[in-house]
Amino acid sequence: VTENRSDLEDLHLYATPREQRFRRFASLEFEGQLYMTPYDFIQAVTNDEPKRAKKWRSLSKQELNQILMETPPVWKGSSKLFRNLNEKGVISYTEYLFLLCILTKPHAGFRIAFNMFDTDGNEMVDKKEFLVLQEIFRKKNEKRERKGDEEKRAMLRLQLYGYHTSTNSVLKTEGEDLVPRSYWDTLRRSTSQALFSDLAERADDISSSLSDTTLLVHFFGKKGKAELNFEDFYRFMDNLQTEVLEIEFLSYSNGMNTISEEDFAHILLRYTNVENTSSYLENMRCRIPEEKGITFDEFRSFFQFLNNLEDFTIAMQMYNFASRSIGQDEFKRAVYVATGVKLSPHLVNTVFKIFDVDRDDQLSYKEFIGIMKDRLNRGFRGYKPIQRYTTFKSCVRKELYSR
Q1: Which DSSP letter does residue 91 get?
Q2: DSSP secondary structure string, 146-211?
Q3: Number of folded domains in the chain?
Q4: Domain coverage including residue 48
Q5: Is pTM beyond 0.85 here?
Q6: What are phi and psi of 353, to 5 degrees?
Q7: Which Pfam family, giving just one, matches this sequence (predicted)?
Q8: What is the mean pLDDT of residues 190-203?
């Protein structure tokens, strides 16, 4: 199934950035609803544009059933789940939003997420409780349409959610409508409302009108009767974070055990609003003349720290309020106190060499926090491809690998 270009561009005018991105990367269609494959999802969070031309392949009921039959149970999950499934999986738009939430949350937040789904407090999440998220994210996405928008938005809702919805069914708030800052905030604020509204009851209607997906079968079994405990939920979230980081790391390591400090800088600056990235890269090259390399353990620990950026920001602001500058030792201590993550001295030194633009061996809020907040919003704020410079050291690494 292919879509007329004018129709595609027309619908994009009525779509949010996340809706647009999902529609660009989705490759499957079933009964009018769009789906990503696991491969599509990985591409959407690690690349700026799809690697293939815009095309939606129509799935038959038999093909969908075969895909779901081959879905492994949750206890067989691993940090290679999405890569192993590749094209043999279907991910809905709601699940896409949920998976994006996972990628930017600290491990301490996993328990909070699980408890938000566990609406009856029995320390297990069933399929009905999980489907409440379908309604919560849909209501977050709904917005007041101008006259003439209704038809286009209705088409989008059918593509993204698989059923028609009424704009009159949005969550009611007193006074003005409040727009949460993120989908994580939406979950946190709205799940409590689900306990006292018709959302849980609506899950039955949703379940009967929608097709199963790879994630639903993975969590709740082929019959949908299984329940999800916290250990399996935690393992899934941790594996997903690890898998995406492994993919990014391997795309630069060329089979080696490390990536260069320059490649690390490329990855950090990739999804930011930094105007002149070349100055950061040149700054780092001059101040780290000898390449030592960043290991995957260092790489992963840094992004675990970034997922705790909000807590670290509070600690860093305390230094600012006390008119104290942030050196490497203070930075490393603040990271550990606020997040529990220990960063290696070499990693901290590399971060300082990248972001300490004025070269005073101190790190300010402006030099680091603001830029890293953009990095957490991968793919939605200020993305611009960064040119990868070919250096003598990188050529040697590639030559060694090719042998």
Answers
A1: B
A2: PTT-HHHHHHHHHHHHSS---GGGSPP-SSSPP--SSHHHHHHHHHHHHTTSSHHHHHHHHHHHS-
A3: 2
A4: 5-165+179-229
A5: no
A6: -65, -30
A7: EF-hand_7
A8: 48
